[in-house]
Amino acid sequence: MKYDFDSVVDRRTTNSYKWDVADNELPMWVADMDFRTAPEITAALKERVEHGIFGYTTISDEWYQAYINWWKKRHGIEYQKEQIIFSTGVIPTISSCVRKLTTPAENVLILTPVYNIFYNCIRNNGRNVLECPLEYNNGEYSINWTSLEEKLADPQTTLMLLCNPHNPIGKIWDKETLARIGELAFNNGVVVLSDEIHCDITDPNYSYVPFASVSEKCAQNSVICVAPTKAFNLAGLQTSAAIVPNPQLCHKVWRGLNTDECGEPNAFAVQAAIAAFNHGGEWLDQLRQYLFDNKQLVKSFLSKNIPQIRLVPFNATYLLWLDCSELNMNSKELANRIRKSTGLYLSDGEQFGNGEQFLRMNIACPKTVLADGLNRLKKAVKLL
User: Fold this and answer.
1) CA dihedral in degrees (36, 40, 41, 44; nearest 10)?
2) How many other CB atoms are found less than 10 A from the CB of residue 51?
3) Contact criterion met (CB below 8 Å) for 283 and 36
4) What is the CATH number assigned to the segment(s) 54-279?
5) Where are the alpha helices (DSSP H) in the chain?
6) Please, where in the chain does CATH 3.90.1150.10 lie?
7) Under DSSP, is residue 84 helix (H, G, I), strand (E, B) or coil?
8) Phi and psi for 112 in degrees, rounded to 5?
9) What residue spans in the chain does CATH classification 3.40.640.10 cover?
10) Torsion over CA of 153, 157, 158 and 164, rounded to 10 degrees?
11) CA 321/CA 327 separation, integer angstroms
12) How far apart are CA 202 and CA 365, in angstroms?
């Protein structure tokens, strides 16, 4: 490989949220990677640092064009400049949209298990969480369409948060599924906010389907949240975009983000995104292959050493969804016991909703670190 994903980088002295743990602990929970970002991005940031002045920053035409070109080339949809709004992050965008597009005590629908911060975005803004649990059969997740139709038809439901691809189960929703969601939402007057932050982290030869590309109803009734932060490990730079094809809806989202002071970039947010989308493609493709290889290592290790834990099949993200139902233990207690006995820090599935017998494991790390984590997991299960 041209790029190095095997070197272990010490993050304990960098104020890392992920690595703020005891010396003997190994964090494989929160969704950021233990790889240095693409050197092309580092070079752009070094150049910006060398300038030495870090005043207020504007959003350049090059930033818009970087997004437009990336999604056209990589994902087959051509957005327009006037549809794209800068935001400091996907979560600020979601919270802002919850406030702007709904009123207190209305329902915001989610398909569970799902990214746990969705709950915070809804509850912290005085709205009701309306869960539509995904069905899990024979290692596969699917939508309960009867339940979804009923909940979208509820007059109190005004917004749906869609995770595409879906975190934590790593599922790439196909075009037919997205079209059906879009049709139901449109017919019931429910706006769909599609969180597509994981869209670039798919297995080799797999790609995701942008929600806005599926149909005109999907495009005109949606807010699309995208960013380079997950794919290029830039979360700390607070850079993202909301893409809203409907002009009236776009104006509402723009007003909300500006009212909430989420629409102004820091001194590095614009340059980092431009460098990622204009020059990071080769690095990303090699990362995707490395992550895929890591998945195969985990799959083989579990089969040989911990058959009680099953890896749920998936084609996106670097987050494994582990079925621990054979261990007959609530995921919160299981995660706590694993951490206490071996120092391995995993995410318990309960916090994602509808995941009481699952664990989430972040494998975006060098293979030596992954091996350490797997051996700790093996030890922990033996000690149960």
Assistant:
1) 140
2) 8
3) no
4) 3.40.640.10
5) 39-51, 61-75, 90-101, 117-123, 145-153, 175-187, 216-220, 229-232, 247-259, 269-279, 281-305, 331-342, 367-383
6) 26-39+281-383
7) strand
8) -105, 150
9) 54-279
10) -90
11) 15
12) 16
The residue type at 50: E
DSSP at 59: P
> H or E segment at 86?
strand 84-87
Would you call 351 helix, strand, or coil by DSSP? helix
**pLDDT given at position 1:** 85
Query: What tens digit of pLDDT does each residue of 117-161 get?
Result: 999 999 999 999 999 999 999 999 999 999 999 999 999 999 999
254, 263 Cβ separation under 8 angstroms: yes
Taking the C-alpha atoms of residue 316 and residue 165, their distance in angstroms, rounded to an integer, is 7
Task: Label residue 316 by pLDDT band (50, 70, 90).
Answer: very high
Strands 26-27 and 344-345: parallel
Residue whose structure tokens are 């007959």? 328
Describe the crossing of helices 367-383 and 331-342 by its angle, rounded to 10 degrees. 110
- pLDDT bucket at 371, cuts 50 / 70 / 90: very high
Going by their DSSP bridges, the two strands 310-311 and 107-112 should be labelled as unpaired
Rounded Cα distance between 258 and 90, Å, is 14
% of the chain with per-residue pLDDT over 90: 99
C-alpha atoms less than 13 angstroms from C-alpha of 145 in its C-beta half-sphere: 9
Query: What is the radius of gyration, based on Cα positions, of the chain?
Result: 21
Residue 75 confidence (pLDDT) above 90: yes
Amino acid at site 164? N
Please report, as a single letter, which amino acid is at residue 135: E
By CB atoms closer than 10 A (0-12, 13-18, 19+), residue 340 is exposed
Q: What is the pTM of this model?
A: 0.97
CATH of 26-39+281-383, one of 3.90.1150.10, 3.40.50.720, 2.10.109.10, 3.40.1190.20: 3.90.1150.10
Read off the amino acid at residue 380.
Answer: A
Does pLDDT of 314 surpass 90? yes
